[in-house]
Amino acid sequence: MSLVLVLLFVLFLLMGLPVAIVIGASTMAALNLGDVPLMVVPQQMFAGINSFALVAVPMFVLAGDILAQGEISKRLIAFADSLLGFIKGGLSVVSVLAGVFFAAISGSGAATTAAVGASLVPELKRKGYDPASAASLIAAAGTIGVVIPPSVPMIIYAVIAQESVKSLFLAGFIPGVAMGLGLMIVAVIQGYRRAYPRGTSLSLKTIVRTFFAASWGLMAPLIILGGIFSGVFTPSEAAVVAVNYAILVSLFIYRDLTLRGLYRIILRAGVTTAVILFVIAASSVLSWTLASWQVPNAIAALALSLTDNVFLLLLVVMTLILITGVFLETASALIILTPMLLPLAAQLGIGTVHFGIIIVVGLAIGMVTPPVAINLFVASSTTDQPVERIARAVVPYLAVLIVVYLMIAYIPVIFAN
Amino acid sequence: MLKLLGWVDRIVGAVLGPVVVAGMVALTFVISLQIVSRVFFTSVTWTEEVARFLLIWITFLGATLAFQQGRHIAVQLARDSLPDNLRRIVIGAGILVSITFLGTLTWIGWQYMDLQSFQRSPSLRIPMNNIYLVMPVASGLMAAMSCIDLVRLLTGDTTIRDRMRDVVE
Description:
The structure holds two protein chains of two kinds.
Chain A: H1 2-14, H2 19-33, H3 40-49, H4 56-68, H5 71-84, H6 90-103, H7 109-126, H8 131-142, H9 152-161, H10 165-193, H11 204-213, H12 215-229, H13 235-253, H14 259-292, H15 295-306, H16 310-327, H17 330-347, H18 352-365, H19 374-383, H20 387-393, H21 395-410, H22 412-415
Helix pairs in contact in A: 1-2, 2-14, 3-14, 4-7, 4-13, 4-14, 5-6, 5-11, 5-12, 6-7, 6-8, 6-10, 7-8, 7-19, 8-19, 8-20, 9-17, 9-18, 10-18, 10-21, 12-13, 14-17, 15-17, 16-17, 16-18, 17-18, 18-21
Chain B: H1 2-40, H2 47-68, H3 77-80, H4 84-115, H5 129-132, H6 134-154
């Protein structure tokens, strides 16, 4: 039956069916062959999404979408520019810093890429930066969006692994900043090699001015994350506070959002999350089925029977995560991998939170590796550069992200607290 | 005939859009109420329950809307590299798989709803079949749209929902 499930899964996936239907149909067929009453299907589908923690998903997507458009993102980027624009190739370093800022507001990689890309790429082009390379750097910095809290994948992981969203959020900071620093180093080296211009010269006056101009945007992460970590709000409540804040600022302070535009953003956020949550619902049936066949434990036992070298096994697990991230979209990959690998991770002595960071960062890297590379697609559509060129230019950034990934996994003292 | 089907298809999309938006607005409102009441007055107990139920409805109806717009996540690289005739066969087979799955889901979703008709939600005492109703409705609609796709494919109409769309546009 496991074999039927795997074969049908791969077949349906290659046929180009929607991932939720791939998962649902292959699981249902296997259950039916095993004479399991199909009533578990609706039961598990509802159980999978009947969770208050998951309410944070549509709300963080919505808040991020509102904050990503218009004035707020422009001012944040101006502030980032005043801080780091003076470096050679400064504008590309600024695009990474802007990605880090945005990561603290938005919970998705695509939204971060779109926000930074839309406002910075015209400027980068005008100053003579290679457009494909600039777009690929912004796509790579977009991966930080799901590592620095808030993070939609971390919420999904927390729900599956029954871990607290708050602990995962806390553990995301240092890895996210490390990814940003890694990308900045590559950007500076390229800046010297390609003799890119310096941008805004460093001046305290400009920093103070742009800081105050950007204060409404900078306050957002303070409210969201401060509220969660101080225990005033649950993550789901904080997400709703963020939505209210974003709407108020955009409608009444910057006045760059019309009600009509708001309606469109809400609709898009609703559909985006429904797509993710529908995959979660279908995957709950799959996870239930695999658990009832004891597959996760079998995987752990099999892996440990091959070698007891923790270092090596972790490397295998990470490779598996990276490969899955190349071919599957983040949420689906997360929902399938987490329940399968958790028992093994526990046997290897990796804590649930640390493993969550490993899996989220690994899948985030998948956002810039074709064929399924959402950040590259978003960067391509916001910059009008062909995906192939961006994909080629992303290689050095990809390399540095993988180095940081190894550090995150193997130096838990620094990266998982 | 085809025109009529296309029209039915678009109506589904036009109706579901405002419903999903209303669900999102209600979700925001309910949790805002939860925060305000807890911070300033005594906390109300029913808001979490309502929020979870809203999330279930948004998920299923939003998924139906995404289906209508061809926006579900799919890996279509392998399929699209096939020669044209073979590709049409694979698309057709895929539609049949979808119809079988969604049709079955409609049927068992309806049975499940029937089974739970005596259950009530813990806090508000809402009959649970009101919440579970969304599964047969959504999968029934998606199955119907798959049937429309099949008719379109057989008649050689090219407006099939097989555009590769990423999640965020």
